[in-house]
Write a structure and sequence with these properties.
alpha/beta; globular
Length: 285
């Protein structure tokens, strides 16, 4: 049924590593051919070969930068002969640090990747899905997109854009047979994230039974989801939008955050970043 509803081709933006790799493998496992898009051609080719060898589907590689102003033309040329029934946008440019420390060029690249390019690609794929009366769209957003965040203002704002865009399209396109969801991803295991996790204080971040938002946010950082769990949750949740989470804790944090005064939530995020690190005397050696 998944292939009938969302096939025969999936287009995965940001497909070669981490969540994107898992999304590509899982789409292929469910019987879809996959167009895999990522910026780095070498890594993309290696992951594409893995998808082909593991699942025996057709794979088309598209090495292209999602912040390229001509990305719409590039993707259209690469997919014009295909029936794309599933579009997953898993990409971001994430400036980390105080807003005024980032050059304007980097901030605008983040806006392009998180806001403009999804709009461009949705205008390419969604009309054809509506005309066929079936299809699926998921924008991989973030639990961070539900709140202000010291040190990731532009990134969180972009993910908020994706979240609200997906919810809106869920309301618009569902009557035409097109399922839409925002995947609100929390902390997810990757080499870079695992290196960050090693700096966290286990005594602060293992309070799983606490009802305090800061404690639960710390616990989420300390216990990241695996990329494969994110991919499975996204595809399983696609018919049940408009929002999907990869684990119950992420849903709990989102729900609690949205129920609190906005200033309190933003200051909680700042406390999370400023107070969760392992003290120097207990740093891992």
């Amino acid at each position: 049924m998944f292939k009938d509803k969302y096939g025969p081709w999936a287009f995965i933006a940001g497909a070669s590593m981490g969540i994107g790799r898992a999304l590509s493998l899982e789409a292929a496992a469910r019987g879809l051919n996959v167009v895999m898009n990522a910026r780095g051609a070498e890594t993309l080719a290696a992951t594409a070969a893995e998808v082909r060898a593991t699942h025996g589907v057709e794979v088309r590689e598209l090495a292209a930068d999602l912040t390229d102003p001509k990305i719409g033309e590039i993707v259209a040329a690469a997919t014009d002969d295909l029936e794309v029934g599933l579009f997953v946008y898993n990409a971001a440019v994430a400036p980390i640090g105080l807003f005024l420390t980032h050059p304007l060029e980097l901030q605008l690249r983040s806006v392009q990747a998180n806001c403009a390019t999804p709009i461009i690609l949705l205008n390419l794929f969604a009309p054809k899905m509506v005309a066929r009366g079936r299809g699926g769209i998921s924008l991989v957003s973030s639990t961070g997109g539900t709140q202000g965040a010291v040190t990731s203002a532009t990134y969180n704002a972009g993910k908020a854009f994706e979240w609200i865009l997906a919810e809106s399209l869920w309301g618009e396109l569902g009557d035409h047979g097109v399922d839409v969801t925002a995947m609100l991803v929390g902390a997810t295991a990757s080499p870079n994230f695992n290196a960050f996790k090693d700096t966290l204080d286990p005594e602060l971040c293992n309070r799983a039974d606490s009802e305090d938002l800061l404690d639960r946010m710390r616990n989420g950082l300390f216990n990241p989801a695996e990329p494969e769990t994110v991919a499975t949750s996204l595809y399983d949740g696609l018919p049940n939008g408009p929002v999907t989470w990869s684990k119950p804790l992420d849903e709990w944090i989102t729900t609690r955050s949205l129920a609190m005064p906005r200033g309190e939530v933003t200051l909680t995020w700042r406390a999370l970043m400023e107070t969760s690190a392992r003290p120097p005397e207990r740093q891992a050696r």
